[in-house]
Design goal:
Blueprint (H helix, E strand, L loop, with lengths): L2 E2 L8 H10 L14 H4 L19 H6 L3 E2 L34 E2 L8 E7 L3 E7 L12 E8 L4 E8 L24 E6 L4 E6 L5 E4 L8 E3 L2 E7 L4 E6 L7 E2 L4 E5 L16 E7 L5 E6 L5 E6 L3 E6 L4 E6 L4 H12 L12 E3 L7 H13 L6 E4 L20 H10 L3 E6 L3 E2 L7 H8 L13 E4 L2 E4 L8 H15 L4 E4 L51 H4 L3 H17 L4 E4 L11 E3 L7 H16 L5 E2 L1 E2 L8 H11 L5 E3 L15 H31 L4 E2 L1 H4 L13 E3 L3 E4 L8 E6 L2 E5 L5 E4 L2 E6 L6 E5 L2 E5 L6 H4 L4 E6 L5 E8 L14 E8 L2 E9 L8 E8 L8 E3 L2 E2 L3 E3 L4 E4 L4 E2 L4 E5 L1
Parallel strand pairs: 1-8, 21-22, 21-32, 22-23, 23-27, 27-28, 28-29, 29-30, 31-32, 42-46
Antiparallel strand pairs: 2-3, 4-5, 5-6, 6-7, 7-20, 8-9, 9-10, 11-12, 12-19, 13-14, 13-16, 15-18, 16-17, 17-20, 18-19, 24-26, 25-26, 33-34, 34-35, 35-40, 36-39, 37-38, 37-40, 41-42, 43-44, 44-45, 45-52, 46-50, 46-51, 47-48, 47-52, 49-50
This protein binds 2-acetamido-2-deoxy-beta-D-glucopyranose (6 copies).
One 2-acetamido-2-deoxy-beta-D-glucopyranose binds next to strand 5.
Keywords: Disulfide bond, Glycoprotein, Glycosidase, Hydrolase, Membrane, Signal
InterPro entries: Gal_mutarotase_sf_dom (IPR011013), GH (IPR017853), Glyco_hydro_31_AS (IPR030458), Glyco_hydro_31_C (IPR048395), Glyco_hydro_31_CS (IPR030459), Glyco_hydro_31_N_dom (IPR025887), Glyco_hydro_31_TIM (IPR000322), Glyco_hydro_b (IPR013780)
GO molecular function: alpha-1,4-glucosidase activity; carbohydrate binding
Length: 918
């Protein structure tokens, strides 16, 4: 521990900054004080100027009133940093502050801030008191703070800054409280500066910056409704900060602003979207990685600037941070997911193909669509209903006129081993008091959100005027259960789709608006899209929920609904199910799944679906998909083909369409398009044993199910920005076409050998782009050498495909070795992993043998589990003999690709098997 004190000044601001970012080992920096306004404002390079007036309409006088510096032109500076990004400065002209540039109004050196007055070692880490003498210009500045630092584990540091005197709202989710570890055992070390207060967390092994708020031009601000802390980044390579729409890599050589306020918003760039995940990962200059999670549920924004640095700016709660040291990206995600909670294991059928659209409008149409897709043999597990199945859009009803016979249709689906999922919106109609039990019981049990003056808040959604359940209320889950149970007896659904849960509201705030108090008109509103108010398209911040105000809980509405829905489904189904939610918050994965909302039927949305899904792997919600062929607007045949090919590799594959667009289910297109789509979905079904095993691995440690290339090739900088290709597990590389009229692709192949899954040719890459011929009927799929994947012949449902033999495809590496595994259980029982009701088989190939070893035999399918074909790719020489379990077995040899192929091994997988080639 070192205690460094300094008095900063203008002339040396740069030196200090450089000292900090270079992480030099000087303990104490004592500088001369100099309060000349011009020099304290002379912050160069300008990338160290931190925004002092983030709200709309800044001006020199507003800036001066805040005690900050105003420069609307670049002062002559010796900065060598490319100045392109200042052309996009729009945050100071009131147009849009989601895109930002260099701030005009920024903090001077020496801005009044906190001093450390006590610093004590504790049995968990440190506790410190931070005192500020003068109030900042933000109302209700809190002058006495306590900082707690917990050495939570070797790889996880937790620190929190709270008001020393008064308890403040804290995010009501359960976080683990492991025993503290000794500082000598951690991967990180902690330093601080006393005055102004700043905290630095370093990676012990390299000195890399994991967190560093010791920035003389970025003071800590801690007012009741304005809390801000900045940190320097180790490098400009960032991932995370969701839910957002855009490329995977956030390039911190540019200015960017991210906003976090759950909103019913078609995914577009630079806007707050459905969910809030204040978590980022930073790949360090040395190519190790760490992650930072800001546990805060208030409206928030994050500024990224090319220092590189990042500023968290929130309007409530406390500053509560978790730092994860990795050092691999994969490890960071594991550490984060283990902290917020391991996701729910999906049922196997959830991995099948799902079909939905808004406005089938009647049962005949629905039947026609189901039939035409089954008639052409589309593998198809789940049919969904959007809101048009309801009677007047009322929850827990179905339209007995237009959907007369819906219960019988569901019975038929069940007979065909298919499933059925219905949509629910949280808004409950209040139009039928005394005649609509969900409303009447809700009133009686007090479960609806109330407005500031204590009346039930009324908004407006599909059914017209609606009230909103408060899922934090102790009566809410049993209230929700009652209707869910009763309705399940009427319509035996298999899963629930919880939409509109930001929550969405067609009138802002409530049918009578909101108050003008500081929860509805806070002194600062992050740069969220809309009209600049928090209540835009949602409820009033001043609305009251059981646990706290809507102001505090808004971003968690979807999470709380998912928690209640998860519990309800467990009670009704007593099996694994799906509850797919639009709005999400950290820890959501424990309770449910996600789809990326109302994406448009465009090529751009096709592309951005990939980074969207990869982000949710990092956010601990691996079961995620985008609406295949696009939700809004008319799709077209080529787009829908390409989207079906890519969607076949989403963890969650659902073709879903809005009400007024043309049909886009596979059966709607021409014969050749149908055939291509069918092949793509069959390809998916055949690979589900492998995908399901990835979900098992996710259960063990939170590992992603699909991955960016960088996760598997972190040493290769070229992979960091790649978000048009991705991996299943770390062994199957997917390289889709994402552009119209394109039949050739330049795809990146990280160094190593890659087998084309279709023609089995091996491409040996030195880490560069290759040209792939990709006609309309093709998606590129490559098996990374050294891996064995289990697969099955496809069938029309997963219930049927699961009965087929397991086949193996082994891609040998240069040492003639490969490994893989298969997880198999009954597909939907609860906690089969905890109860060991599963079978796990490890496959190993090594120097002329390939064998399977049963690690656990906790599940024995009735139909046995047989080994079908075996393909061994990349064999060094043609064998003369092949033995399977010590008996000679016929095999085929492909000379062009050096492959052994056994058509049907036909041995049980529940016992060890061995293949030897001589
Ligand atoms: C700050 O709060 C702590 C805890 O209540 C108290 O011990 C300390 O005296 C306070 N310091 C000041 C300067 O108010
Ligand atoms: C829960 O509902 C009951 C009526 O069933 C009501 O008496 C009670 O006050 C409610 N609980 C709360 C905390 O509002
Ligand atoms: C709360 O709702 C009642 C009934 O609609 C309304 O009269 C009152 O003005 C509302 N209060 C606020 C603060 O919106
Ligand atoms: C194959 O033979 C070896 C020794 O000859 C024996 O140890 C092994 O158990 C046999 N394996 C099977 C699967 O029969
Ligand atoms: C597999 O072997 C069993 C006997 O062990 C036999 O009954 C069955 O017909 C064989 N299946 C195939 C597809 O060859
Ligand atoms: C330049 C080139 O290789 N073009 C190929 C693109 O893809 C089409 C159809 O798949 C091929 O016919 C072209 O030769």
């Amino acid at each position: 521990m070192m205690i460094a004190a300094y008095v900063s000044s203008a002339a040396t601001a740069l030196a200090l900054l450089c000292h900090v970012i270079a992480a030099a080992e000087e303990d104490v920096v004592v500088l001369n004080s100099d309060n000349d306004q011009n020099t304290i404002c002379d912050v160069n390079p300008y990338v160290y100027r931190f925004d002092c007036h983030p709200e709309y309409y800044s001006s020199p006088s507003r800036c001066n009133n805040r005690g900050c510096c105003w420069r609307d032109t670049l002062s002559s500076s010796s900065s060598s940093i490319n100045d392109d990004s200042i052309n996009t400065i729009v945050n100071n002209d009131g147009k849009s502050s989601s895109k930002i540039g260099r701030p005009y109004c920024y903090f001077p050196v020496n801005y009044p801030s906190y001093k450390v007055t006590q610093w004590a070692e504790t049995n968990y880490g440190y506790r410190a008191v931070l005192i500020k003498e003068a109030s900042s210009p933000w109302p209700n500045d809190i002058l006495n703070l306590t900082l707690y630092i917990w050495f939570q584990s070797q790889t996880v540091l937790h620190f929190k800054i709270v008001d020393s005197k008064n308890a403040r709202y804290e995010v009501p989710i359960e976080m683990p409280k492991p025993p503290a570890v000794k500082p000598s055992t951690t991967d990180y070390s902690v330093e601080y500066f006393s005055s102004p207060f700043g905290l630095k967390v370093l990676r012990k092994s390299t000195g890399a910056t994991l967190f560093n708020s010791i920035i003389s031009t970025a003071p800590l601000i801690y007012a009741d409704q304005f809390l801000q802390i900045s940190t320097l980044l180790d490098s400009p390579w960032l991932y995370g900060l969701g839910e957002n729409y855009g490329p995977l890599l956030i390039d911190a050589t540019q200015y960017r602003k991210f906003t976090f306020w759950a909103r019913d918003q078609i995914p577009i760039m630079h806007s707050n979207l459905y969910g809030a995940h204040p978590f980022y990962m930073n790949i360090e200059k040395s190519k190790e990685a760490h992650g930072v999670f800001f546990l805060n549920s208030n409206a928030m924004e994050v500024d990224v600037q090319p220092a590189p640095a990042l500023t968290f700016r929130t309007i409530g709660g406390v500053l509560d941070f978790y730092i994860f040291t990795g050092p691999t990206l994969e490890n960071v995600v594991q550490q984060y997911v283990q902290t917020i909670g391991i996701p729910a294991m999906p049922p196997f059928w959830g991995l099948g193909f799902h079909l939905c659209r808004w406005k089938y409008n009647n049962i005949d149409r629905l039947k026609t669509i189901i039939k035409r897709n089954k008639d052409i043999g589309i593998p198809y597990d789940v049919q969904w209903s959007d809101i048009d199945y309801m009677e007047n859009e009322k929850l827990w009803t179905y339209d007995k006129v237009n959907y007369n016979g819906l219960p019988q249709l569901i019975d038929q689906l069940h007979k065909d081993t298919m499933k059925y999922i219905i949509i629910l919106d949280p808004g409950i109609s209040d139009k039928y008091p005394g005649r609509y039990p969900p409303y009447d019981r809700g009133v009686q049990q007090n479960v609806f959100i109330r407005n500031y003056t204590g009346h039930i808040l009324q908004g407006q959604v599909w059914p017209g005027p609606t009230v909103y359940p408060d899922f934090t209320h102790p009566n809410a889950t049993s209230w929700w259960l009652k209707d869910a149970e009763d309705f399940h007896k009427v319509l035996p659904y298999d899963g629930l789709w919880i939409d509109m849960n930001e929550p969405s509201n067609f009138v802002s705030g409530s049918s009578v608006g909101c108050t003008m108090n500081n929860l509805d008109r806070p002194p600062f509103v992050p740069a969220i899209s809309g009209d600049g108010t928090l209540e835009f398209k949602t409820l009033c911040g001043s609305a009251r929920q059981h646990v706290s105000t809507h102001y505090n809980l808004h971003n968690m509405y979807g999470l709380h609904e998912a928690m209640a829905t998860h519990e309800v489904l467990l009670k009704i189904m007593k099996k694994r199910s799906l509850s797919v939610s639009r709005s999400t918050f950290p820890s959501h994965g424990k309770y449910g799944q996600h789809w990326t909302g109302d994406v448009r039927a465009t090529w751009t949305d096709l592309y951005y679906s990939i980074p969207g899904l990869l982000n949710f792997q990092m956010f601990g919600i691996p079961f995620v998909g985008a609406d295949v062929c696009g939700f809004s607007g008319n799709s077209n045949e080529e787009l829908c083909i390409r989207w079906t090919q890519l969607g076949a590799f989403y963890p969650f594959m659902r073709n879903h369409n809005d009400g007024d667009s043309i049909d886009q289910d596979p059966g709607a297109w021409g014969t050749s398009a149908q055939k291509i789509m069918k092949e793509a979905i069959e390809l998916r079904y055949s690979l589900l044993p492998f995908m399901y095993t990835q979900f098992y691995l996710n259960q063990l440690d939170g590992s992603p199910v699909i991955r960016p290339l960088s996760f598997a090739f972190q040493a290769d900088v070229e992979t960091y920005k790649i978000d048009k290709q991705f991996l299943w597990g770390s062994s199957l590389l997917i390289s889709p076409i994402l552009e119209r009229g394109k039949f050739n692709l330049t795809a990146y192949f990280p160094s190593g050998g890659w087998y084309d899954v279709f023609n089995h040719f091996k491409l040996t890459s030195v880490g560069r782009y290759y040209y792939l011929n990709t006609p309309l009927n093709k998606i590129n799929l490559h098996l990374r050498e050294g891996n064995i994947i289990p697969w099955q012949q496809s069938a029309v449902t997963t219930a049927k495909s699961r009965k087929n033999a397991i086949n193996l495809m082994a891609g040998l590496d240069t040492k003639q070795a490969a490994t893989g595994q298969l997880f198999w259980d009954d597909g939907d029982s609860l906690d089969t992993i905890g109860k060991k009701l599963y079978t796990l088989i490890k496959f190993t190939a090594s120097r002329g043998t390939l064998y399977g070893k049963v690690q656990l035999k906790g599940y024995r399918p009735v139909d046995e589990l047989r080994l079908g074909s075996i393909a061994i790719l990349g064999v060094d020489r043609k064998p003369t003999t092949l033995l399977l379990n010590n008996k000679t077995k016929e095999f085929q040899w492909r000379d062009d690709v050096n492959e052994i192929f056994i058509t049907n091994a036909n041995v049980t997988l529940l016992e060890e098997f061995t293949t030897v080639w001589i």
